[in-house]
Design brief:
Blueprint lengths: L2 E8 L34 H7 L26 E3 L3 H17 L4 E4 L7 E6 L7 H15 L3 E2 L5 E5 L27 H7 L10 E13 L16 E8 L18 E5 L4 E6 L2 E5 L17 E11 L4 E5 L34 H7 L3 E6 L1
Parallel strand pairs: 1-3, 5-13
Antiparallel strand pairs: 1-14, 2-10, 3-4, 4-6, 6-12, 7-10, 7-12, 8-9, 8-11, 12-13
Length: 367
């Protein structure tokens, strides 16, 4: 039997309410602590070579061309981390076994109760060590940096991924349309980094996120001609801290601002964590159930952050949802052995950031 876990959300009435500490307590320095990450501008390979900066990875230089960040803010390098056989093995030997056991709950967010997903950690060592070997090879080959891997990653598994996950209204309004919210990962870094065992002062502020699909709704990948593959990633050309012409913090208002990066099985996509992004939400006309008969999607979502030693450290997407109204870990469905429970650091936002994200206060409940 499938069990469902929900979050009851109470609106914070005072729009001037304080979020996070107001003292000098250090918090994760998102984007190297830069107040503003510039929006996308076209930079040619010749200009990048002249400036000795990177517009994509792999790259021979040490800095990205936008705000000096690695990975370059407006890049999205890919790497085949797992073979089809290895991805299928993750699905059959791990995901389906855990789901069919009836022992794990689905996560459901109150704004979108018709959408739900499983969070299933991948055990480290022995049976599934090939999974972590694939992640490490993908990262170290792409970035030519050493990756430390102190935590187990989660896979987010949707077993009813069909055209109900498509939406048209989300292309003209702020309605998320399905269980994916437009966000950047600054606040997630602030509550997830501590599971790595490092202190906030150990990090430079460079950070990346990545997705790695291990199950898709069709056996035909995007690269094989499935041009409307509905499983994918959305990336936007503005980032954390960007302000509009009126000086107000800016979040993309709808999905017309995004570029889709559709999935291939076992292929990791890396991107700058502080760039606005989301899980891909297809238009209704493009999500054809007959073209996607498997009705499933499973992917790892992970982070890595640069240490001042030059190494990078892996940590997981510990919160469990991209919904910004959930500002703490969703512990009710968290069965990852690397979990350290509730974060001791704060999901630190200024009042202005909180208003941008429409932050509200969640509490857990179970049905």
């Amino acid at each position: 039997m499938n069990h469902f876990v929900c979050l009851v959300v109470a609106v914070v009435a005072d729009s001037n309410a304080s979020y996070g500490p107001k003292d000098a307590t250090p918090t994760f320095p998102c984007g190297k602590g830069d107040e503003v990450i510039p929006p996308f501008t076209e930079i040619s390979a010749e200009e990048a070579a002249e400036r000795k900066c990177c517009i994509d990875m792999p790259c021979e230089y040490d800095e990205g061309c936008w705000a000096g960040q690695i990975p370059p803010v407006y890049s999205a390098p890919r790497y085949q981390a797992l073979s089809r056989e290895e991805a299928n093995r993750i699905e059959t030997e791990l995901l389906l076994e855990r789901v069919n056991s009836g022992e794990i709950n689905k996560t459901v967010m109150p704004d979108m109760p018709q959408y739900s997903w499983y969070r299933i950690p991948v055990p480290r060592g022995e049976q599934f060590q090939f999974f972590y070997d694939g992640v490490r090879t993908a990262f170290e080959t792409t970035f030519n940096r050493k990756l430390l891997m102190p935590v187990a990653l989660d896979i987010f598994y949707v077993d009813d991924f069909d055209s109900r996950w498509a939406s048209d209204v989300t292309y003209t309004s702020s309605d998320p349309g399905s269980g994916y919210w437009i966000h950047n990962d600054c606040s997630n870094f602030r509550i997830c980094y501590e599971e790595s065992g490092f202190q906030v002062t150990d990090f430079t502020g460079n950070g990346l996120a990545f997705v790695l699909p291990v199950a898709l709704p069709s056996t035909r990948d995007f690269k094989d001609g499935h041009v409307h593959m509905p499983a994918g990633l959305e990336l936007y050309n503005v980032s954390h801290g960007y302000r509009d012409t009126d000086g107000q913090l800016f979040k993309p208002p709808n999905r017309q601002w995004m570029s889709p990066h559709r999935y291939n099985l076992g292929e990791a996509i890396f991107f700058n964590a502080f760039r606005w992004h989301s899980g891909f939400v297809s238009r209704i006309s493009e999500f054809v159930d007959a073209d996607n008969p498997e009705h499933k999607k499973a992917e790892t979502v992970g982070f890595a952050a640069e240490l001042k030693t030059g190494e990078w450290v892996l940590f997981r997407m510990c919160k469990g949802s991209t919904d910004d109204k959930a500002k703490e870990k969703i512990l009710a469905t968290d069965i990852n052995p690397s979990s350290t429970g509730a974060a001791t650091d704060k999901y630190t936002l200024s009042d202005e950031e909180a208003a941008l994200h429409s932050i509200q206060e969640p509490t857990a409940c179970e049905q």
